[in-house]
Amino acid sequence: MSNAKSLNVHPGMNLGYGEGEHEAEVKVFGFWVFLMSDLVTFGLVFAIFGTMTGATAGGPGPHDVTNLTSVSIQTALLLGSSFAFSWASLSMKYHEGRWRTLFYLSFAATSALGFLIVEGLDFMHWIEIGAVPQRSGYLSALWALVGLHGLHVAAGLLWVGAMTAQILIFGLTDTVKSRVTRLGLYWHFLDIVWVGIFSMVFLAGIA
Amino acid sequence: MNSLFGRLSWSDLTLLDFFENPSVDTAVASTASWMVVIGAILVLGWITLTRSWGWLWREWLTTVDHKKIGIMYMILGFVMFARGIAEGVVMRTHQVTALNGGFLSDHHWAELFSTHGTVMIFFVAMPFITGFMNYLIPLQIGARDMAFPMLNQISLGLTATGAALVMASLVFGPFETGGWTAYPPFTGAAFDPGPGPDYWVWAIVISGLGSMFSGMNFAVTIYKLRAPGMSYMHLPVFCWTALCTSILLTFAIPPLTVAGLMQGLDRLLGFHFFTNDLGGNMMNYANLFWMFGHPEVYILILPAYGIYSELTSTFAAKRLYGYTSLVWATMSIAVISFCVWLHHFFTMGQSPTINAAFGIATAIIAVPTGVKVYVWMATLWRGRIRFTTPMVYMAGFFILFTIGGFSGIILANPAINYQVHNTQFIVAHFHNVLLPGLLFAIFAGIHIWFPKAYGFRLEESWGKVTAILWIAGFSMTFLPLYVVGLMGYPRRSSAFEDPAFMPYMIVSVIGAFTLLVAFAGLVGTIWVSVRNRDRLAVPLGDPWDGRTLEWATPAPPPHWNFAVIPEVNARDAFAIEKVEGRPYVVPDRYRDIHLPPNTMAGFMCFLATTGFGFAMTWWIWWLAIVSALAVLVWLIVHSLRDHPHVVIPAREVHRSNQAWVEAIDLATPVTRDDESNERNRGYAATDMAEAT
Ligand code: HEM
Ligand SMILES: [Cu+2]
Questions:
Q1: In a designed cystine with B525, which of B88, B125, B462, B670 is the match (CB 3.0 to 4.6 A)?
Q2: Which residue has the CA at smallest separation from atom 39 of ligand 1?
Q3: How far apart are CA B320 and CA B309, in angstroms?
Q4: Is A13 in a helix, a strand, or coil?
């Protein structure tokens, strides 16, 4: 460990030495590229939503679908989940053993699950008031955007499940650490996208 | 029964069409359908008879070697090319009978141009360029493989899925009739509820994901796995174009995926993104599609430019003139290509200001393209040019592509565009850039790199005749269409009324048959060369006095590419080694090489996504669920297993490298004059010293 750079090759990981570092760097970088591409996807769905805000065809509009209490709870749960994930990453980095990492990870997962449940309740309410995607272009775009994000979160939860199994089986090996790091990137990324949805779909919708 | 097969029933089998309702039209459809079935049976039977299943599985289907994956992309492209060409010829034959009607039904004609366009763009052109990038990138940058070898295999699987779905549409039921762009609401459920547009949606979305992953993989490979000392400005030009293409793939495929999935939601679940009623807006589709569609044409053409650059400098035995400007031109094209998509729908009702802005942006792209053409000319200037087959293609490209480019500049002007929009002029233009631009590069590239991949050259005499046939066939088929386009003959029209078009149609159909012969020439070239492979063998690996690192390996290269990773300190690394008189570096010490193990991930994905796409097309819900779950479960199980590397022991690397270097030491270098005869065993005498 000659200098600070080699100490902290990856914020979030302290890997074994040698080849492992380079390999992890390539993978994390590759995942960033994927995330940027995914960001374009979200950006496009946002843009479509933007062009369709007025296309309610006489059906339910932003005021009918926005329940500020519910979205605030969702926001809190998702941000909380990200926060818990940061603790999981830190505990992983400083070698505090797998149980501690798993402990924080379980918080992150529960909180995200809570987010999905509250979001699901919203969806059910929308269906009750007839705000189904088949009703108008606006609602199609709304369901697609919010649903795409929800699907990402659900996929992330599956991934957390798979990582939990891997941590239990392999322990915090270099491979596992590098995967948790990428999962972390994904997790925080979904947070950022949600902030976009929260402000542009819900807040701006009723402003 | 009905629910087990969704909405698929016996009457959807095109095989039987002719027997139920005999006509010329159903004869063509049923023949195509039988050809798919019989072709598949023949191939499977042949593999079984020769007992090659084990070999196929171990050496090809489960391999993660980028070289073999690249070759499989090329084979996929070729199979689909045969279909695309056949369709093109059928269409031209229809057109020559189309004065006040033609021998095909309107519906069949519409299916033909839709499958033809879809196949050519997504399953011929894309696999070809992806195949080249796969094969060349790691070799040219001095790497052992891609950054993500397993993902690479999965990408191939996803591309094959799309091709399989389009092929399936020949046997089961109709394809869509809205062209390769599949514009809703024409392809929406209200107008066309049948499975045709669904085939398109799933083939395109699934193979699109494959291309996107390839793009990321190439980009990361070039960014991160370059040999020590290979700075960006030392990259071979092909890698530069590949890098820009990869960036385009990463960012331009998402609009296609989004457009496709939204179209799918509209059709399957009754959403209203692009419908006519309830707030749907088809302009959103046009924008999304062309946000992909325009960069797509540069995805295809940039690697072709890369091939032409390597070609000119190799066969003129000169350093590429103006490397830096070429790199900048490539990057500018990549960036500007995102700012011009609206020129595909000037006539769809936006303001003149917007049209003007996009028209200017479009015309601007011609500037860096012009730079490239001058760079190639300057490279050839005073070079020691050898008129080998690739140069014949280059010559055809130079003249014809310039014509195609000029017609593009004309189209960039919105006022003119209004006149020729959706006429045969457009058909002439895009075939003019795609055939001489893209395909000629691919064919030239095959002649250049085939010896690297297989260890023997392709027969020059056959190659030259074939090249000339392509040039002549192209000119006859498509140049007349400029004229009829200006005379007002619409595109995608199954019939015409003006007898004045007839002479042009006749020339054009003769051209189309010439192109068919040219394709046969291509197959013949390979066939004859395989038979003469001993005479044509170039095991030593450098038949053309190459300049970049891939030529510094035996032909074919070992699985691990390089015995030791080369160190690079200049452009054209291998050329410099040769000039300095120390090519073929022999390391003082060999090391074990670690390679990723074989995996069936790609094949699994291929099966599951094909099942999924087919199920979504025909509403076979149980199959859709099973296939989707299969991928998920497999992924999770895969992540829970250990995947030890395959280790190639240093001894083995040493043995194989030593044998090759000794063979070179024993050989005498072959001069330019003997390049095309059997004295060329792949050890080219270099006149780099004077030529660099
Ligand atoms: C033997 C060579 C070929 C022949 C005879 C041929 C012929 C045709 C014909 C007759 C059409 C329909 C024109 C119309 O709409 O009126 C067409 C459309 C098209 N072709 Fe080709 N073609 C050939 C090769 C290619 C190649 C190599 C590509 C691309 C790599 C290509 C891409 C397309 C595309 C994208 C369309 C537009 C389909 C649409 O309208 O949606 N073609 N071709
Ligand atoms: Cu364009």
A1: B462
A2: B179
A3: 7
A4: strand
With H, G, I as helix, E, B as strand and everything else as coil, classify residue B13. strand
Element of type H or E holding B595? strand B593-595
Distance of CA B341 to the CA centre of its chain: 21
Kindly tell me if the per-residue pLDDT of B691 is higher than 60: no
The answer to whether residues B638 and B605 touch, using CB atoms and an 8 Å cutoff, is no
What local confidence, expressed as pLDDT, does residue B1 receive? 47
**Spatial separation of the C-alpha atoms in residues B149 and A26, rounded to whole Å:** 12
Q: Cα dihedral sign for B602, B605, B610, B613?
A: negative
The percentage of residues in chain B with a pLDDT greater than 90, rounded to a whole number, is 89
User: Which residue do the tokens 């030239």 mark?
Assistant: B444
Q: Quick check: B105 and B192 in contact, CB under 8 A?
A: no
Enter the pTM of the model. 0.96
Give the distance, in angstroms, between the CA of residue A12 and the centroid of all CA atoms in the same chain: 18
Instruction: Enter the DSSP assignment of B626.
Output: H
A57 touches chain B (CB under 8 A): yes
The per-residue pLDDT string of chain A (207 residues; one tens digit each, 9 = 90 and over) reads: 344 444 455 555 666 555 667 788 899 999 999 999 999 999 999 999 999 999 999 999 999 999 999 999 999 999 999 999 999 999 988 877 899 999 999 999 999 999 999 999 999 999 999 999 999 999 999 999 999 999 999 999 999 999 999 999 999 988 899 999 999 999 999 999 999 999 999 999 998
Dihedral sign computed on CA atoms, order B4, B5, B11, B15 = negative
Q: Are the beta carbons of A52 and B281 separated by less than 8 Å?
A: yes
| Contact predicate B446/B458, CB 8 Å | yes
Rounded CA separation B63/B642 (Å): 18
pLDDT in the model for residue A11: 53
- Would you say B165 and B199 are in contact if contact means Cβ atoms under 8 Å apart? yes
At B472, list the tokens: 């002549």
Report the pocket of ligand 1 as residue ranges, CB < 6 Å: B 85, 88-89, 91-92, 113-114, 116-117, 120-121, 124-125, 179-181, 427, 431, 434-435, 439, 477, 491-492, 512, 515
Q: Which residues of A touch B228 (CB under 8 A)?
A: none
CA–CA gap between residue B199 and residue B184 (Å, rounded): 14
Report how far residue A109's alpha carbon sits from residue B635's, in angstroms, rounded to the nearest whole number.
20
- State the residue for tokens 């039209």: B25
